[in-house]
Every structure is written in structure tokens, then in C-alpha cells.
Amino acid sequence: MSQFIPSIESGKKMLLLFAKSQTCTAGGIPARTVLTSVYNSRHFVERAPDLYTSPTEAILCPDLKQSMYAQLLCGIVKSAEVVVVGSIFASGFTRAINFLEKYWPRFCRDIRNGELDREVTDPAIRDAVNRILRPDPALAERVEEACRRKSWQGIIRDLWPNAKYIEVVATGTMAQYVPILEFYGDGLPLVCSSYASSECSFGINLNPICKPSEVAYTLIPTMAYFEFLPVDADDNCLVNLIDVKVGEEYEIVVTTHSGLYRYRVGDVLRVTGFKNRTPQFSFVRRKDVVLSIDTDKTDELELQTAVERAFGGLRPYGVTVAEHTSFADVTTIPGHYVLYWELRGGAEEVPASVFDDCCLVVEESLNGVYRQCRTAEGSIGPLEIKLVEEGTFDRLMDFAISQGASMDQYKVPKCLRPGPMVELMERSVKARFFSPKCPTWTSSMIL
User: Fold this and answer.
1) What is the DSSP string of 75-114?
2) What does the alpha-carbon distance between residue 185 and residue 188 come to, in Å, rounded to a whole number?
3) 210/190 Cα distance (integer angstroms)
4) Going by C-beta distance under 8 Å and a sequence separation of 6 or more, which residues neighbour residue 390?
5) H helices of 243-391, where?
6) Which of 114, 240, 326, 365 has the most CB atoms less than 10 A away?
7) How far apart are alpha carbons 288 and 266 in whole angstroms?
8) 313-to-50, 321, 347, 433 alpha-carbon distances in Å
9) Cis preceding linkage at 334, omega within 30
10) Strand 290-291 relative to strand 298-299: parallel, antiparallel, unpaired?
């Protein structure tokens, strides 16, 4: 990053990081996520104190609300020193801004009085925050002036005026958060610096200030032994690292130093070029995320593209879709796709016909097999959009975390399975709309 943004190492990073509680296997072996392992490591705990604004005590706190509150407060208190803001995933940082939008009066009160909110009860957090919190009426007034505005466009620049970029993963399913973060950042670059998973680290982005849609990761050959399985090919058709072809898509397979042997990670990558003899890849999708009712197969990328096209119908009304997910409802005859949307903004009420048209736009954007089943065979019913109450997706994340998911690694599932998550969404539905007619289809579309 220092090659692209000079003096970036002279300030602090406000990176919102969240550790998860450790569990044990039946045999007593400690088990935790890779990020939680990092945050608890001596290397991280004994890091240079000037690197991050968040106290270690806040990062390690299992109470997510207290952790979020403390980390944001410290980030604002040290805002003059902050040169980087962000989180692991774009979804996490978006939620942090929404959290700030809800609680900014409390932050202003704490900063003005130099006293931490009483609802933050964790003793370790209180001690850590109180070491840096001092009465600062001028800062409180500046934060209040920025936050009381009707529009939050550029709020990140207003609160952290020296920030050079937003560091988040904004590729794959996280791409849906790019417009809202661009709105909050008002021109700040969105940096996707590296590609990693719990299995191993893969590579880095050698052009980190490029647009998220142009991100390509250069694999580091010494991180693991990498092999590639062409999409839809036989399991025995593995290709070596230097033998992949530009433009082709592959599922990545790893053999790692820690003992995984030819492990299928489940990520589908597209070769975009080479750095010397090392290939560069863009993340396409997760292989196993699909909607299916009959013979149709809708993958994550296709669904995301179709939904984004439908969003365009809401723009004239000043409305955006803050979060969305989907569900293949086979309880009806025939079964049909359900999209759950949580809306944000817009002073003008959106006519029902607009949402009906959104349903049709999604269907028109799906593949030929889906449209054949829907139009010619009648084996799939009209697509349905269900609008849910504000805060529903926060509750969905809270539920996932209560079941063992990690705050740092949580991603909104783009396809729900029957069970508690669908039940949670259904309890929050406030309106529903169906596609008004069948999408177009001809026999040539199936090819």
C-alpha cells in the first residue's frame, strides 16, 4: 500500500475486528476460527500499540454490541490520527456505519463528558477505553454536526478526515455493498488487499487501489500447493498452477502445510492474467450456493446480477435495497423463488406495480433453463419478493452468531435453507409481490 499511498504507515488504522469465543471438541481439543486464533496470538496482542485504534480488550470481548460501541468510540476519539478505516468484510463495515447512525448521540455525549456509556459494562473494555477517553467538546460538536445531517453521503470523510482508503473485502457476494460504501466514502478507494480463507492464505492484490470489479489476486505459490479443477470437469482433471488458461474458470484445490490434502475449498476463480509465470485470479462465486426448484440451477453470481438489475426500478423513488437473500420455496405447488429485501431511504412510497415489475426483471435475467421451467413447462411458479422490516438482517446475523458463526467471518447467506432462518425472515415480512407474467423464453435460450 505504501507504494500507492505515500506516508500511509504514519497513522493508525480503524479496523473493526471481532473475536469469537473458543470451543472444544468432544476430545478436548481447542477449536476456534482462524481470525480468533490470530487475535488471541501473542503476535497480535503484543503488536505495536500505534497500529490500530481498537483496544485489544474490545476486539476480544464476546459481546458484539459492547465491542462495536467501544471500537467505534475509540476510532472517533483518535479520528485525527486515522488514515485507514474498514473491517474484514464490506458487510461488517456497513453494519458498523448503521450502528453509528443509531447511536451517534451517545457517542457525542461520551466524548463531550469524557465518560463511557453505562451500558458498556465489560470491566476490561471500560478500563481500556477510559485510558484514552477525555472530555472533548469540540470533537463532540464536530461529530454531532456531521451526524445530524439528513444525508450521510461522505460521512466517513467527515468523521475521519485523514482517511486514505476503506479496507474491506468487496468482491464476490460482498460486491452488493460497494454502492453504499461509495456513498458513505464519497470517493475514498475501496481496497481489497488479499485473498485468504480458513484453509490457507492464497494471494495478494498487486493493484490494491483498483475498482472492486477489477480486483485480481496474484497467488503466492509458497502458501500451499495449488491445483485447479475446471468447472464442470471430472474430478480427475486437475490442472497445475502454471497450466491454467486466461479466461477459464476453475475450482481451487489446496494441499497445505497444516495437513489438508487436495482439499476443495469451494471457491470458483477466473484467470485474468499472469504476473511472470504466476496466474492472477478474480473471485467469481462459491460453487455450492444455488437455487433450484426443478432442473434449474441458479448460482450465486447469476442471482446477484439479476437482483442488481431489478434494483434499478427503485432508484427513481430514492430507495435502495440494504440487504437481500433468497429461498427456494417448495411448499407451494409448483415451487417458486422467494427474494427477501430490506429497503432503505425514500420519502416517496413505491407503487406496488414497481415491485411486481422487479420480480419480472429478475426472472428475465435468469438462465434459459429457469425460464423454460417457468414458462414452457410450468414446473416453477411466479417469483416472489417479500419486503421485510428494517433490522431484520441484523437479527439474522445475531441468530447466526448465536449458533456459532463468527462476527468477523459472517456473510449474509444468499440462499437460505428451510429452518429457523427462514422462519425468522417470515416473521418480519410486511409486504409481498409476485411476477405479473411469465418471462420470455424460446427453445434457443436453453443452449
Assistant:
1) HHHTGGGEEEEEEEEHHHHHHHHHHHHHHHHHHHHHHHHT
2) 5
3) 8
4) 342, 343, 344
5) 300-311, 352-365, 368-371
6) 326
7) 7
8) 46, 11, 16, 14
9) yes
10) antiparallel
Q: Given the DSSP bridges, would you call strands 384-388 and 429-434 parallel, antiparallel or unpaired?
A: antiparallel
199 in Cβ contact with 113 (< 8 Å) = no
- Cβ atoms of 12 and 83 within 8 Å: the answer is yes
Q: What pLDDT score does 261 carry? A: 96
Q: Cβ–Cβ contacts within 10 Å for residue 260, how many?
A: 16
Q: Which residues contact 79 (CB under 8 A, 6 or more apart)?
A: 14, 139, 159, 160, 161, 162
The 8-class DSSP code of residue 10 comes to G
Rounded to an integer, what distance in angstroms lies between the CA atom of residue 304 and that of residue 310?
A: 10
Distance in angstroms (rounded) separating the CA atoms of residues 356 and 436 = 6
Of 409, 421, 445, give the one whose Cα is nearest residue 174.
Answer: 409
User: In one letter, which amino acid is 132?
Assistant: I
Q: Which residues pair with 352 in a beta bridge?
A: none
Residue 355's closest CA among 284, 420, 426, 431? 431
Instruction: Tell me the one-letter amino acid at 64.
Output: L
HSE-CB for 254 with a 13 A CA cutoff: 23
Sheet containing strand 12-16, edge to edge, reads: 12-16, 82-89, 165-169, 190-191
Residues whose CB is less than 8 angstroms from the CB of residue 76 and which lie 6 or more positions away in sequence, other chains included:
107, 111, 139, 143, 159
**Among candidates 30, 27, 100, 40, which has minimal Cα distance to 65?**
100
Domain boundaries, the chain: 8-191, 218-286, 290-446
Pull the grid cell for residue 239. Answer: 490442472
pLDDT digits (tens, 9 = 90+) for 389-422: 999 999 999 999 888 877 777 888 888 988 999 9
**pLDDT tens, 52-79?**
999 999 999 888 889 999 999 999 999 9
C-beta separation of 192 from 169 below 8 A: yes
Spatial neighbors of 73 by CB under 8 A, at least 6 apart, are: 107, 110, 111, 116, 129, 133
Reference 388, options 344, 352, 354, 420; nearest CA is: 344
